[in-house]
Structures are given as C-alpha cells and as structure tokens.
Design a protein that fits this description.
Number of helices of chain A: 15
CATH topology of the largest domain in chain A: MetI-like fold
CATH class of the largest domain in chain B: Mainly Alpha
Largest sheet of chain A: none
Strand content of chain A: under 5%
Number of strands of chain B: 0
Number of strands of chain A: 0
Radius of gyration of chain A: 25 Å
Number of helices of chain B: 16
Shape of chain A: globular
Number of domains of chain B: 2
Largest interface: A-B, 141 and 142 residues
CATH class of the largest domain in chain A: Mainly Alpha
Largest sheet of chain B: none
Helix content of chain B: over 70%
Oligomer: heterodimer
Order of helices and strands of chain B: HHHHHHHHHHHHHHHH
CATH topology of the largest domain in chain B: MetI-like fold
Helix content of chain A: over 70%
Chain lengths: 302, 384
C-alpha cells in the first residue's frame, strides 16, 4: 500500500498534502472549525469558571467578567464545592456509585450468559426469542414506569437500590444481549469445537474462553451502560420516589437544586453540576476508544 | 478475511451435534426442569431484595452500604449462575443438555419479560381504563389526548422536537465530521473529542449548563449573568426571559439536546467517512471534482445508510426526551412534550389512564422502527 502511494504522481498526492499542512486555501476550514469549537466549548467553560468563583460574584456578574481579574486571588475559591459536598452531594455521589456499579455489572453478567446461549447453544425457539430481544431494543422505558412502580410499591421495594439495579438491568439488557451475541457469534467455531473435544463443559468454555475473548465488547457495553445509569434521571426519580431522599443519586439532587434556582441556589449550581459530571468525564477520556466502539456497534439500535 | 457477525453453517452443525438429543426431547419432565431453572435465579434475585431491606436502615454507613451492595450485587449474580450450572450437571446428560441453554438465557429472558414485555401489555390495558384503573373506558383516554389542547400541545411539541433535533444533529454532525477529516491528524482528534464531549454529560447537567446561558433578570434587578442576555443587551436589545417566549422557548430547549447529541452523529458519521474507499475519491479528484462535489456526489451517497441509522437513533432519543423539559421549564409555558406530560399525569395528577395512553403514543411512533429492525435481523439470519 505504502509503495503505491509513494510512486503515485503528484496529482494524486495533492489531497493528502492539504490534510497534513496548513495552507491559505484551507483558511475557511480552520475558521469554521474554530467557530464550532468555540460554540461547543463555551457553555461548559462558562459553568466551570463559575464553579470556582465567589458566591456573591456568581450572583452579581457573568462568568466572562473574570477575564479582567484573572490573577486577583479574591476571584477564585473552592468554597462552592465545599458547600455543595456538605449539602448532600457527597452522599449523592456515594449513592450514584452504589446505583451504577451493580447496575453495570449485573446486566453484563446476565447478558453475557444469555448471549453465549444465543450464539453457541441450540434450543427450540432460539431465533424467535432473539427476534424478541431485537424488538425490545426500541421499546421506550416509559412503557415500564407505571406497571413497575405499582409492583415496586406493592412489594415495598420502591426506593431501594436493588429495585433500581434490576430496573436498569431490564432496560439495558436488550442492547447488551444483542451486542454480545453478535460479537460472540463471530468468534471462530474451531475454538469452541476443540474445547468441546477436550471435554470442556459449556460453563468452562464460557468463562475460560469466550469471556476473555469478548473483553472489547464487554468494555464497550460497560462504558455505555455506565454513562446511561450515572446520567439517568427519570428511572431514579420514578423508582426511588420522594420517600427515600437519602438514596437520591446526583442527577436527582442536581435537578432538585436547579428547582431552587433564584432562591440562593444559583451560586451552588455550577459546582454541583461539575460534581455530577466529573466521573463520566474521566471515564469518557480514559475509555473513549471503548465508548466509541460501543456507540458504533450500538447505533444499530435505530 | 472478515467474519460476518452471525453463525456460519458449520458452527451450527457443531452446536447441533452436541445439543440435539436433549433440545428436541419434549417430555414434560424436561420442560418442567427448564421452567424451574429459568425461575430459580429470578427467585433468588427477589431474595436479594429483602436482604437489602435492612441496608436501607439509615443507621448503616453509606460506605458499608456501597461495599455490601457491590459484593452481594455483583458477586451474588455470578454465584447464582455457577450454582445453577452445578445443579444442571447433576441431571442425566440428555436432560442437562436440554436444560442448560435455559440456565444461560433464562434469567435474561425472565428479566426482559418482567421489565419490558409484561409492562408493555399492562400499560396498554391501563390506557383503556379510567384514572384510577378500576373501570373500562374504551378509547376515551386517547380521545382526550387527541382533542384537549393541553395534550395536543405536548404532541405538537414532541413532533417538532422529533423533526428538528435529528436533522440538525445529522447535518451539523456531518459538517463537523467532514471538516475534521480535512485537518491534520492531531488537530482532528482534539476537535472531534471536543464536540463529542457533551455525550458524557447528563441531560440534567446539560440543562444546568444552559440555564446559565438562558438566565434572565428583570431589568433593574442586577446585571444579566446569562450569556445570551448579556450578548443580547450589549447588542442593544432589552433582556428577554428566553424560557417564556412562546413557541421559541421550545427551540431554545432543543439546542440543549443538539449540543448533547451532535457528537454522537459526528463520531459515527466520521467512521463512515473514513470507510469511503480512497480510490473512488482520488479518481474523482483526478477528474477535476472539487471538495464540495466529492462530498455531495461520493461521500454522502456512500454513507447514506449510516446517515439513516444515526438519524433514527437520535429520533428515538429525541422522541423520549424528558429530563431537559422537566428540569428547565417543568413543561410550563407551552414547552410540554409527550414523555414529560406522561410522567406528570401519572405521578403528579395520579391519572393512570391518561399517563398510560401517552406512553402508548410513545411506543406507537417507534413501532415501525421496531418492525424494520426485526425484519432486518430475519434477513441476516436467512442469509447465513
């Protein structure tokens, strides 16, 4: 491949050159890129700056005014973060973790076993059941809110973490089973065959062979599901209810705080918003590769 | 060689050779065992629930709760599968082979049945009953939804959201992906990360971010701290309460979702653009095609199917949007959407019938996509 490109006449190389060097002809492109970058960044930058400003300053002037007093020590403070964490966001952060970790791990486990069965075991109704899974991928979770919250109230598990974990498991499962089954099904059959000849059971083949080989797709789904659950507001709001406010995750706390906008909560909102965003942002930057892969694979959802 | 994401014939043969005896033995005993194996695991999961009741005790520290939750929640599930598999191993080989697939797939199917299939049926039944669910009212709820102005506003707004947001996201996403493709590698990645970044932000978080852009103060009650009003007043306008401007407030809310979702469109479309064969593009350039012509005549037609997929995915997300409206306006000032109205009817107004009917409206609109998905899956399976 490389040799072909090197031998190719300059006409063909031309487009490649413009890609790697800044030229005047490309000026409109850079201008457009810069414009989009600024527009996309401004909302987030504004709130980040605000979160480190004095409470009174946040109330009385826009964040852009800091550029006149960047090096003034009275401009910056960590006080907002301190206040926000003391006012329940530290607790909510722990709640979000307590909700998210099992709500990611349980569906992956359940889906992986199911995906293996759909990919490598033969049983009556296999294709029909998988078609149902495919169909369920687009069923809005709103369909489940009324019946499930009724059942939860009846069982008196409304407001508990386990209730939330299983709800998130249910809503994440169709995509998980679909993604994992397609990936596992594409692994070479010779692997499974030879393991079976060696006398390995399905359970051994699954845990020792298929699961380690499926790590990329597991990581991709884990990243997706983590962001969904961490950022979820509706499911937590409905199934935690108002009775157990001590269990509220960050999104619910933030939405409550936003509800008090103008009643003195204004100076706390930027810091609170960043407390809710920090972990997904870290995950996003560290696991971006898996996230993109998951998204690309998951876009079949449409 | 690329392997298709489906089983090939010889793989199926292998599977059959090992599973056939049990799977097609339809004796009552085996079906009973299958049923039990599918039921035990969810049963034990229910047991988890009650174990966790004691963790709700406010006297227990949060850290203990979290640690116990993770150990029991994650470890417990693994243990369950292991135990179930052991249980099946005790069975005669033939029976075991018939039951085992249901040990593996059973829990997932049970959870899906409980959390999606049963609720769907139940919601449809609820939608033809009255507010308290104790009387059959036929299609009255639907009749109200499609005649009373408060619901018609929600439906109208949802339709506008569903039209505007996916199109803007795809168009901007495509533009960003194309522009990024012209940049040097490092700049390209930085630029794409930046546009993609909001994907990590929750809808609630994004709403708070934009609350500081749309913030409004009545003149004389302090400086405008909202960016939009600051710019607006600097340009000579008088401050506007953006969230209360009839009709337009809907579009200001849509901007939030566009900010969040464009990155998704861009990433998927960018991958598709990279997949456009170089030789076609180069051939077109030799023939004298300019950037726009290459984009319009080669890139777009080649990635058309990806564009459709991205568009439908964002359409589904948009159609179900709840958080943004609930947090920013609470559905007031004519900004209500179907998913938000549904939650309000059920949880605030306690009107089960109308709430369920609105949920069914949400489902009906995505039904064609559901049918197309299943069809596409069937075709794939037929090919293999």
């Amino acid at each position: 491949m490389t040799t072909v490109t090197e031998k190719a006449p300059t006409v063909i190389k031309a487009p490649k050159d413009t890609r790697t060097s800044f030229t005047a002809a490309r000026f409109p492109v850079y201008l457009a890129v810069l414009l989009i970058a600024v527009v996309w960044l401004i909302p987030a930058v504004g709130i980040l700056i605000n979160s480190f400003r004095n409470p009174q300053a946040i109330q009385s002037s826009g964040w852009w005014t800091v550029f006149g007093q960047l090096f003034d020590s009275s401009t910056w403070t960590l006080q907002n973060y301190q206040t926000v964490l003391d006012q329940g966001f530290a607790n909510a952060f722990a709640n979000s973790l307590a909700i998210t970790i099992p709500a990611v791990a349980i569906p992956i486990t359940v889906a992986a076993f199911a995906a293996y069965a759909f990919a490598w075991m033969d049983f009556p109704g296999r294709n029909l059941l998988f078609a149902v899974v495919v169909g369920l991928m687009v069923v809005p979770l709103q369909m489940a809110l009324i019946p499930i919250s009724r059942i939860y109230v009846g069982l008196d598990i409304s407001g508990t973490f386990p209730g939330l974990w299983l709800a998130h498991t249910g809503f994440g499962l169709p995509l998980a089973v679909y993604l994992l089954r397609n990936y596992m099904g594409s692994l070479p059959s010779s692997l499974i065959e030879s393991a079976q000849i060696d006398g390995a059971s399905h359970f051994t083949i699954f845990t020792r062979l298929i699961l380690p080989l499926s790590m990329p797709v597991l990581a991709a789904f884990a990243t997706l599901q983590f962001l969904w659950v961490w950022n979820d507001y509706l499911v937590a709001l409905v199934f935690l209810g108002v009775a157990r406010q001590n269990n509220n995750p960050l999104t619910v706390e933030l939405a409550n705080l936003q509800g008090q906008f103008g009643e003195g909560a204004l100076n706390l909102l930027p810091a609170a918003a960043f407390v809710t965003m920090i972990l997904p942002l870290v995950v996003f930057f560290v696991l971006q590769r898996y996230f993109v892969r998951g998204l690309t694979a998951g876009s079949v959802k449409g | 060689m690329t392997t298709p994401p489906v089983l090939r014939d010889e793989e199926l043969e292998t599977g059959r050779a090992h599973e056939e005896p049990g799977s097609h033995d339809n004796s009552v005993q085996i079906w009973l065992l299958r049923l039990v194996s599918a039921l035990i695991v969810p049963g034990v999961l229910l047991l988890f629930f009650f174990t966790f009741e004691f963790l709700q005790d406010p006297d227990i520290s949060k850290v203990v709760q979290v640690v116990v939750a993770v150990i029991v929640g994650v470890g417990g599930v693994w243990l369950l599968y292991w135990a179930m598999d052991r249980l099946v191993s005790v069975l005669p080989a033939r029976a075991g082979a018939g039951v085992r697939p249901f040990v593996f797939a059973g829990p997932a199917l049970m959870i899906l049945a409980f959390y999606l299939i049963y609720p769907t049926i139940d919601t449809i039944v609820t939608s033809v009953r009255n507010a308290r669910g104790d009387e059959f009212v036929g299609l009255d709820n639907y009749g109200r939804i499609f005649t009373e102005s408060q619901y018609l506003v929600s439906i109208r707004n949802s339709i506008i959201w569903a039209i505007v947001v996916p199109i803007v996201c795809v168009v901007v996403g495509l533009a960003v992906a194309t522009l990024a493709d012209m940049l040097p590698r490092k700049t390209e990645n930085a630029f794409k990360s930046l546009v993609f970044l909001p994907m990590a932000v929750s809808f609630v978080g994004a709403s708070v971010v934009f609350a500081f852009i749309y913030s409004f103060r009545v003149e004389g009650f302090g400086e405008q701290i909202g960016l939009l009003n600051a710019v607006w007043t600097a340009l000579g306008g008088s401050a506007v309460d953006w969230m209360r401007v009839p009709f337009w407030n809907n579009l200001f809310l849509m901007v939030i979702l566009i900010w969040l979702q464009t990155g998704f469109a861009m990433v998927i479309l960018s991958a598709a653009i990279k997949g456009v064969p170089d030789d076609i593009v180069e051939a077109a350039r030799i023939d004298g095609a300019n950037d726009w012509q290459v984009f319009r005549r080669i890139t777009v037609p080649t990635i058309a199917s990806t564009i459709v997929v991205v568009w439908t995915t964002i359409l589904i997300t948009t159609w179900k949007v709840y958080d943004i409206v609930a947090v920013m306006t609470g559905g007031n000032d004519g900004t209500s959407v179907v998913a938000e109205k549904m939650v309000r009817e059920f949880f605030t107004n306690r009107n089960n019938g109308i709430g369920a009917a609105l949920a069914v409206v949400l489902l009906i609109v995505v039904m064609p996509i559901l049918v197309i998905n299943i069809k596409r899956f069937r075709e794939q399976e037929a090919v293999r």
